[in-house]
């Protein structure tokens, strides 16, 4: 790309200071405050405190910890004290960040750990791995309380209790009702023809979104009587160029959602009216991951090489890693009134 278009920040977002030295694999905000955690291919887990002064956001590095190999996923405990991270060293570490404690290993698999989720209603940690298992962990015990076999490697996972959706390599989705967590509730073949990249459970637990490597999102309802509401749509495409949808995030208040893609763009959508609410300008590198803070007032996204085109297309001279903070406007995240309604949601 020429210098004139190679702008990592065309949307004039706020830049997080001291970003990772390699690509970001996950971003997660504390459920209790504006503390942002990023995991990276550089084996590190970092935390920043995000502060607001008027209309300006700023970041202060707070702490970091490390794994022996690249870190792929992260989540917070619901009380906002503790971070869990998993990765290529086949372990999940529990980091009592707010107490200034050291990270300790609390979960193990036989292959890299791709997804991790804390479920406060059950007081358990769930881990999904490329060893084709899900494991449920009670942190007071060293062994998992249950191991669930999957048909293939875990590629994506989303929990909105009691709904948990796990996407695997073979385009399968295994749906669990966590009130009966040891039994599959339903198995669904992806509505998309290509490899699953991300999944997001609906806020009302009635279904899920799926994003694929082929620039397409599927909206899928679980109830058979709601199947007429299912649809797919194209996004993150430009001409004949098709890009992966890397992240799907529901807004915690308005329940609209955002897609982030390898084209370097993020877009806001309303699934109920089947509308795009706002298209943002393309950054000069892919967006591999993104997240909202707990009240939806900050949208964090990383801009960096996503390794989808392999090592031969990685240029260390230009492949700087960024994390940006966007302040969503109401028009971007609030659903527009539909025809024939009073406008009340």
Task: Give a description of the structure.
This protein is mainly beta and 345 residues long. The protein folds into 2 domains: 28-170, Methylamine Dehydrogenase, Chain H; 190-332, 7 Propeller (Methylamine Dehydrogenase, Chain H), CATH 2.130.10.10. 1% of the residues lie in helices and 47% in strands. It contains 1 helix and 30 strands. The chain has one helix spanning 330-333; strands spanning 14-15, 24-29, 35-40, 44-53, 56-66, 71-76, 83-87, 91-95, 104-108, 113-119, 124-129, 133-137, 146-149, 154-160, 163-168, 172-177, 184-189, 196-201, 207-212, 216-221, 231-234, 237-238, 241-242, 245-250, 257-261, 266-270, 275-279, 290-292, 299-303, 322-326. Strand 14 (154-160) and strand 15 (163-168) form a beta hairpin. The radius of gyration is 19 Å and the shape is globular. The model is unreliable at 1-5 (pLDDT under 50).
């Amino acid at each position: 790309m020429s210098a004139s278009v190679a702008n990592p920040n065309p949307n004039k977002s706020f830049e997080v200071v001291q970003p990772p030295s390699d690509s970001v694999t996950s971003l997660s905000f504390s459920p209790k405050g504006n503390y942002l955690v990023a995991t990276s291919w550089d084996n590190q887990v970092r935390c920043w405190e995000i502060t607001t002064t008027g209309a300006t956001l700023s970041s202060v590095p707070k702490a970091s910890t490390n794994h022996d190999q690249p870190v792929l996923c992260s989540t917070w405990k619901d009380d906002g004290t503790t971070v869990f991270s998993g990765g290529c060293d086949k372990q999940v570490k529990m980091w009592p960040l707010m107490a200034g404690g050291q990270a300790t290993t609390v979960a193990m698999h036989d292959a890299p750990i791709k997804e991790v989720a804390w479920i406060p209603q059950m007081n358990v940690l769930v881990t999904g791995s490329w060893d084709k298992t899900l494991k449920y962990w009670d942190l007071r015990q060293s062994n998992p309380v249950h191991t669930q076999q999957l048909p293939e490697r875990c590629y994506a996972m989303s929990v909105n209790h009691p709904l948990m959706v796990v996407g695997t390599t073979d385009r399968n989705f295994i749906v669990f009702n966590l009130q009966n967590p040891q039994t599959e509730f339903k198995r669904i073949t992806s509505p998309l023809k290509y490899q699953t990249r991300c999944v997001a459970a609906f806020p009302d637990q009635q279904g899920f979104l799926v994003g694929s490597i082929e620039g397409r999102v599927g909206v899928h309802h679980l109830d058979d009587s709601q199947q007429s509401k299912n649809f797919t749509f194209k996004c993150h495409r430009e001409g004949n160029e098709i890009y992966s949808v890397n992240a799907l995030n529901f807004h915690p208040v308005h329940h609209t959602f955002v897609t982030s893609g390898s084209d370097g763009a993020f877009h806001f959508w309303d699934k109920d009216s089947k509308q795009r609410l706002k298209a943002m300008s393309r950054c000069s590198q892919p967006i591999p991951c993104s997240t909202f803070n707990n009240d939806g007032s900050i949208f964090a996204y990383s801009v960096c090489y996503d390794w989808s085109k392999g090592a031969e297309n990685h240029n260390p001279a230009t492949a700087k890693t960024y994390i940006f903070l966007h302040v969503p406007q109401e028009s971007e995240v609030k659903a527009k009134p539909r025809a024939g309604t009073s406008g009340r949601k």
